[in-house]
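Table 4 source record.
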Amino acid sequence: MGMREFQALWVAQALSMTGNFLLSVAVTILVYQQTASALAAGVTLALTFAPQIIAGPLLSGLADLFPRRRVIVCCDIIRAALVICIGIPGMPIWGIWVLLFCSILPMVPFAAARAALMAEIVHGDRYVAASAIIQLTTQAGTLVGLAAGGWVVALIGPNSAVMYNGLTFLASAAIIQFGVRFRPAARQDAEERPSLWQVTRDGTRLVFGDSRLRTLGLFAWLAGIYMMPYGLANPIADEVGAGPTAAGFIMAGHSMGAVVGGFVLTRLINPATRMRLMGPMAVAASAPLLVWFAHPPLWVMVVLLALSGMAASYQFVANAAFVLCVPPEGRGLAFGLVAAGLQAVQGIGIALASLLVEVASTHAVITGAGIAGVLAAAALAVPWARISQSAIDRMNTETA
């Protein structure tokens, strides 16, 4: 936190993520007020996730082809312009949807460029700590954005809330422009610079052809299994005779645990040990779901989800280790590919769980998810025990 450039990245990330989730709330309310349709509001919310899945493999390479500070600033400016247009009174629903979809697309190269640029600013084990701070801030920004969204809309109206939200992206762009020094593109020679298609193709081969990167990426995608209760919060609350407040606690349980676990893992455990702990912690992230077969009371469910979140804080280390293990010229694309996959598996997991509860109880579905998660994590933990030392050596090289 004493590094000026990291401070700029941190504040910009906080603004962008808070603005992103505030936007989700404000636009959904705007559409619902215009249409009185729950389906239209649901489509609007879905449009805040779909572009990242589609654009992840296509646009992440921009972070490797162009100077990363420039990519971040341009993405924020583009988002600001599109979001301000969404808030124009009288904008038709189809126009809101098109603008919203386009406004989410720049998040992909923004996140890829930010992760790669941070690896140039903070090195080795300090990158792990910096990455943990960014991810904890992202979770806090998510909670603030969601919590403040309804209050802001009630105070100034949905159109004004959306338009003012665009200013958060302009502020983020200014902070990066003046707070982070210019660095050339990872691929500097314009004559030999590959096309975006070539970068995407080569990056995909790199991620899935390297055992370390492949295993770390799959560790990240395990979230699609142990996050299933998040998407079933309302049915779970209904089954125990509780209401929306209980559903909110269920949805927040995992994040609360992740904050505690992330702090302990990155601040109190030495770097080599936490690298080796990733396999056991991945198994432990799904293990609490196995207790669902006993039909626990609501407070126990929340505790179990918090424990799952604490174990799932291994993601902080996996994320940082993944970036450090990728060659500098391919970090943007590699990060974007895994991030897009994470969005996809979480969406698929929640959709699958929602489908299964139509034919089975939530207790059976979540217990099944726990079994699948433990088995999948154990299958990854075995090879990781063999190759983790090479990731540790890579981190030590970065530190040196």
